[in-house]
Structure formats: C-alpha cells, structure tokens
Specification:
The protein is of the alpha+beta class. Helices cover 32% and strands 20% of the residues. A six-stranded mixed sheet has the order 1-10-9-4-5-6. Strands 2-3 form a two-stranded antiparallel ribbon. The longest helix has 30 residues.
C-alpha cells in the first residue's frame, strides 16, 4: 500500500467535506444522465424470439410475466462451454435475489444465455443462484442484441460490440438490454449497455472503490484477472 498522508481529525473533515461536494456533483450528473436514458426513443421488436425454460418454450413477451418492463442480463455462456463466464458469475453473485425487489416496480429481471438450458440449470445449481435463467440457443436473440458472434464475424473483424465494429476475442460478450410492452402486447427495445456500462451494476466493485487500495488491479495482466467463480477461491 502506498504511504498515506496522516492529518488531524479537523484537517481530515475539511478534506472529506471537499470530496463530499464532488460526490454530490457526481450524483446530480448521474441523475441527469439517468433521465436522459429514460427519454431515449424505442425500437419495435419485430422478431418472434423463442427461449427454452424449465416450463418449456416461451416467447419474449412471456418473459415479462405480468410486468410492463423487462431487464435482460446477457450472461456469457457459449453453447459448447463447460462453465459460465467467471466475470459474468461475479456480476450474478451480486444481482442474485434482485428479481423479487425489481418486480415491485413493474419490471421483470431475466438472465439469458446462448448455452443449452440443461447446462444453465446445472451451473445455476452449482453456484446456488435463484434468479430466472433461460436459453436463447434456438433463436438469433443474442446475435441481434450484439452479445454473440459467429467465428466468421470474429475472423473478419465484423463483430459489433458496444455499437462499434471491432475484432472481438470471444464468441460471447456481456450486456444488459431493456424492453417495454404496451397495452396491446407490442414489445419495444429501449436500451442496451455493454462493456464498462455494466460497471455500475457490480456492487462488490463499488465497495472496493471505497478502500484505500481501490480495486487494486493495476499490476494485473488485465483488470479482472483476480476474479474466480465463488466456489474456486481458496
């Protein structure tokens, strides 16, 4: 740990109050950004997407249940993978248990992955999660919302992720997408976020940000090199 500057309590309080003003400014900016997000226009979903669930095949509208809003957590789990992504698992540890709370605000939270349902359910049992998880294996849902890529797309550099065409190193990527449905049952896509846009959804990271060492990732080969599935830590 770097050497800390040690001061009196009065000096510390003065510095803390200065930081508090910056934190308040950031909060106001974040509130304004959230308002802009809510005012984004929507795109009508035209495809009849199908998903495999424990109760059989369902449509996108079925994932809403009795809600008018739907949050989809795109979890990286390819069709031929033996385990889910450790980073997505890190996020999932945080939002596991959120669905019941989100449901109180007229919204459903659903996790979707490309892997076959039986793989998802087995991994879910292993990790002790309770959130609803469905498979999009037999639809183009993941590809259309830019979280799954074919080998040809990767080889040609034509994969679009986070609204940019880039050479992507994996057939799967993380993201979140938001949908609403109107009284007539029509579905509209209102928002998607990827990459660092997912950062604020990880409460553990933001707890670490409170510490003197922060996330302590600067010396690692890549920022999340330390993350393991929670049953693999020693």
């Amino acid at each position: 740990m770097q050497d800390m500057t040690v001061v009196s309590r009065d000096e510390w309080t003065k510095a803390r109050l200065a930081l508090l003003e910056e934190e308040k400014r950031f909060t106001r900016t974040r509130d304004a950004l959230s308002e802009m997000r809510r005012k984004l226009p929507a795109v009508k979903v035209e495809k009849d997407y199908r998903f495999e669930t424990e109760n059989g095949t369902v449509t996108l509208v079925d994932l809403f249940a009795d809600k008018s809003q739907l949050i989809i957590q795109h979890f990286m789990y390819g069709t031929d993978w033996e385990e889910g992504c450790p980073s997505c698992s890190f996020w999932a540890d945080g939002y596991n248990g959120f669905a019941i709370h989100i449901g109180q605000r007229d919204a459903a939270l659903m996790t979707v992955s490309k892997a076959p349902l039986e793989k998802l359910l087995a991994y879910k049992r292993r990790m002790g999660w309770t959130f609803p998880w469905v498979s999009s294996e037999n639809s183009s849902f993941n590809e259309d919302f830019q979280v799954s890529f074919t080998p040809d797309m990767i080889d040609s550099g034509d994969a679009v992720y986070n609204y940019r065409t880039k050479s992507f190193p994996s057939t799967e990527a993380p993201g979140i997408s938001v949908f609403v449905r109107n009284d007539a049952g029509k579905i509209f896509h209102t928002y998607s976020t990827y990459s660092r846009g997912l950062d604020m959804m990880n409460a553990a990271y933001h707890y670490l940000d409170l510490l003197p060492k922060g996330r302590d990732e600067d010396a690692l080969d890549y920022p999340m090199a330390w993350v393991k599935r929670h049953d693999k830590y020693e």
